[in-house]
Every structure is written in structure tokens, then in C-alpha cells.
Predict the 3D structure of the following.
Amino acid sequence: MKPEVLVIYPTLPPQMAVLAERYTLHRYDLADTDAKADMLADAGRRCEAVVTNGHAALTREMIAQLPALKVVACSSAGYETIDVAALTERGIKLTNTSDALADDVADMALLLTMAARRALVAGHVYVTSGDWGRKGMFPLQSALRGKRLGIVGMGHIGQAIIARAEAVGLDVAYFSRTEKPQVARPFQPDLLRLAEWADILIVIVAGGAGTRNLINADVMRALGPQGTLVNVSRGTVVDEAALIAALRDGHLGHAALDVFWNEPTPDPALTSLPNVTLYPHHASGTRETRDAMSQLVVDNLAAHYAGQPLLTPVN
């Protein structure tokens, strides 16, 4: 008998084919509402593993209906839709994929920073509209070299951003819940002071209740009218109403965003502003990285059933 696995959110097709070969899959993701309830009540009671990601809910109530559950393999870095406390209370392990996507997200953080600081989108329009020929040289922009970068969050991705930032001459300091001894850069335990020091603030923390509106009006005002806010974490980390007001009123210079409160239809009051650079929550969106993320789900389940240490445990 193959082990039974509950699929709340699928991986990519090649990895799903591997999972289907190794396990009996119960496709909660494909079931209608009534069938979902029946699946949890029946097959769910026998499932030792769950496959999901940070876009699908795994609540305390759902976990209570999975008495055999031992491991949850999440195919994203974020897991704010999963009740980690409920898992931990029962000794159920959670894995994620932040290791696999660190480089691509760090690349996008720097790309957004450079695009914002050098007005890449506006420059593109200046050429395509014919304004270059009609109006002459594009306005001078601000150099990166010598500017101060504050990184909010210092996990795998935050550390990957450091090397890229310093390669273009940025001076780096960071804020995190705790100081990271392995990070040989200045630690600033006060987020407001980091924002006051910085020219650019890159936000890369986990989503969820603990970080909701972490970047508030005070932080934006501290970053200032020449400052650039880059968010490659979750939309909920930034107070979006305060962001719109700060950008509109000149208290913040520019925002470069991969994530939004309302996805995939962000607030037009934000997207219509001239001082934003926007990307559709796709920082990890390369074929190579998404394949690696899906493969980590396969490999973590294989490790669990082989009695080996999990590759990327969260709790």
C-alpha cells in the first residue's frame, strides 16, 4: 500500500507525476466544497502528509481532522495561511522552500531598486512616446553607489540581497527580530531608526499577523521624500493606505513593489501614481526556481518517509 497524501495545493506537473507514482494522492485541491468536507472526514484521517503552499488555507480546524498528520510540505517560502502553532502543538513538521528562491527574489529586489532609482519605466516611456526627440535629454537621476540600504528581515533572501547590494556600492544595515551573528553588517534593532538612516528600504519578512502593517506611516515618513521603499515580501507587511498617502503627498519618494494587499487586482489609487514601479508578485517566477521549489516538496516527503532529516524545516 502506498502512503496516503492530501494535496491542498499542487506542485508543478512533473513533480506531481512523481508524487502520484510514489503515493496515493487525495486531491483536495480539485474537489468541490461538499467533497472537500467528505475527504477530510474520510481519507484525511489516514493521511500522514499534506502538500500545499502559502496561497491555500490549512487551519487549526482542518488540522484537527487530520489525526495521522506528521508533515506538511509547503511549496512556497511564505506560509502565513498555515496555522504553524497548531502544527507545532502536535509535533507536526512544516517545510518550505525559501532556500530555493533566495537568489531570484534577491535579484528582483535589486532590479526593482535600480529601476526605481533610475526611473527605468519612465525612461522607457520617454523613448517610446517620442518625448526624447521632442523634449531633449531625460532628467538626471540618482546614483546607487554610496547610498544607504536598510534591509528589513535577514533570512536566506535578506542575506542574498547583501552581496548584490554591495556589488553596486550600497552601504548595508539591517533590522530583524534578532541579530544574526553570521551577518557581518550593522544590526539596527529599531526599525524607525533604520528608516531614518536609509535612502532605500528593502522589505523581506514573512507575512501574517505578526508583520501586518509593519511598514507604517511613521516608517515611510522616516525614509523620507527622497527615499525608496521596495517590498518583495507580502503586501500585508506595508500599510497600503498609508503608502498611497505618503507617495501622493510627497512624504515618500518612490515605491517599488512586487506584492500588494489586493492581488491580482491592486488598488488603482496605488497603481495610478507616477512614483511607483510595479511587478505582478513574480519575484521567484523563473522556470528554474519554480522547478526547484516543487522538487523540494518531493524531496522533503521522501526524507520524511525514509526516516531522514527534513531538508528545509520551519518549526
Summary: The first strand starts at residue 4 and ends at 7. The chain has a mean pLDDT of 97. The chain has two domains: 4-96+288-305, 101-278.
